[in-house]
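Sharing a chain and its predicted structure for anyone who wants a worked example. Both blocks are below, sequence first, tokens second.
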Amino acid sequence: MTEHRTILHLDLNAFFASVEQQANPELQGKAIAVVGGGGRTVITTSSYEARAKGVKTGMAIWEGKRACPELIIVVGDNRKYTYTSSRIMQMMQDYTPDVEVFSIDEAWLDVTRSLSIFGTAERIAHLLKARILQSFGLKCSIGIAPNKLLAKLASDMKKPDGLTIILPDDVSRIMERLPIQELCGIGKKMQRHMNLLSIYTCGELGRCDEARLTRKFGVLGKIYKAMGQGIDHSPVIPLEESDEVKSVGHSMTLRHDIDRREDILKFLLQLSEMVGRRARRYEVSGKTVHLHIRFADFYSGVGKQTTIGSYINLSEDIFKTAVSILDTLELPQPIRQLGVRLTNLKYAAEQLSLFREVQKKSDAIKAMDTVNDRYGEFKVTFGSLLSAEQKGSHVISPAWRPDGIRSVDVQ
């Protein structure tokens, strides 16, 4: 069923920065970097003018300024990005119903069944590029290939505004000398492990003995060998058919480093409410709570999780569990970033409680959620948060989707 497929991978080039340049003509042609609210987050993306000067995603602002003194810092507008992305994802469905959103600025399209209507995949790519440019002023790179792995590889080959086609007969030649880290799914850590096995190119990975790879990487060894050969049978999965998510989480970078316990607890409560509200909206509960902390030096941090005996989705319960984790940790520095995540999920419809007080509490939480869903975050909240200044900035997660549980509310 996966043979003779034609897959497109579309990548919106320097998406956040490009949206900002279109929204503000004074930024066009200039080196800009987009950061989270308040300027305390790392650089989430930069314009191609800034990239030419050495500015990279993940840099601290001071590092970006050192590389490019004329760099203009722009505080990101998440609502603008999610709106634009959602519109573009809808546009893709005019060419095929088989669209898999990979992130806010990337998607795969299986156009195999659309070729009889539009003629060729290349024509579909040109139509999409023209419509996105005309409607939003944005450029994108598109890769066309027989599978998802190669389509993403192709879209990365020419940026910005590229169009690259990998034909089946070209696969072995392209993969022979391609560095393994160019493949989606092989990060720096996996690259180091493979380098220890004297595997540096996809050709070497594809020829490596499968038993050797499975001894090192388990069941993934077989998959890695196939990747080295340019083989990928994974289907394009539309949003409505995607697997249930495995976690619900939020994190925030603080505008000021904090070390007082009362400040830490206020932000933990805020995060717990954000996680709990989204979990309740989609009727999921979890048994494992994760707490992540990044310290003031930006590079060091700590993370820990705990699994409790029952499934929870009330903000109060998530908060209490996060605090219990916090109390086991040493904090050698002030805190720059906090994150709370709920995992080990189950989907279940709500049942009425036999206990009146428990049911009253559940009804009150429902009423709170209803108001906040309609009027925005924290319009109704816990008393301890009423005087708390909202000092966190939120960066869109790579797991963002335009619909469903991964469609995180943005500020």
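Comments welcome. Residues 349-355, 384-391 have pLDDT under 50 and may be disordered.
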